[in-house]
Amino acid sequence: MKCALITGGSRGIGKAISIALAETYYVIVNYKNNEAEAVDTLNKIKNRGGDGDILQFDVTDRRSVDCAIDTWVAKNGDKKISVLVNNAGVREDSLMMWMQENQWKNVIDISLNGFFNTTQKLLMSMLTAKFGRIINIVSISGIKGLSGQTNYSAAKAGIIGATKALAQEVARKGVTVNAIAPGFIRTDMTKDLNEKELAKTIPVQRFGEPEEVAELVAFLASEKSSYITGEVISITGGLY
Ligand code: NAP
Q: Which of 10, 102, 192, 212 is the most core-located residue (most Cβ within 10 A)?
């Protein structure tokens, strides 16, 4: 049975992705702290006729990633993780002038090192199976840079570079690697923003919904997307 692992699948965009991918895949919902929300995601999957599991690990902790995935794989010999969505991420905004070292390090660690830890762990089995889908959730900040987000912009731009490089390494083995760059999406991450004011700057005049991002991920996770790799696809309501 083919499975999809979504990091940060407990809330926001990751929750919507988990629910959408459960139409095709057995879904593993990763979370860091919020077990109740991870269970809620799994319940929503099951209520729609899908199936899955929850899996706690911190993407920044390589040993915790290895241990959680090894333990899950040992218990689920009939299942193969064919899709990885690197979605876990945080923002800790500050002007560079005032940014604390831990604000820089945390954001880079979760997005960029998290990508490395999970992707390297699952890559070999995808290459052996000659099928895999790696989808990295980046941001418009990683493309254009956003004031107050040098840490977040650097982390997301780093993943964009890694996406393009890795795509070239693994394409011949049936593994595609793509990035999706959302603009403003209505989740916990953006709830402190002034949506009414910011919406005026977006051509579509509103924030996006997590489900709209999930639809795009579902296509890239499917077998139908096999000729798309190394791409960064924006989903921003026209914002640049
Ligand atoms: P969110 O609502 O704040 O959810 C963040 C998720 O990441 C939660 O499930 C959280 O798990 C998980 N997480 C955080 N740190 C983790 C860690 N160290 N290990 C494992 N999981 C961890 O965020 P979101 O808005 O859905 O964002 C999802 C992704 O989209 C992020 O990469 C973000 O940068 C990107 N993005 C978001 C927007 C936007 O407007 N919302 C725009 C562009 C890009 P717990 O529930 O356990 O805390």
A: 10
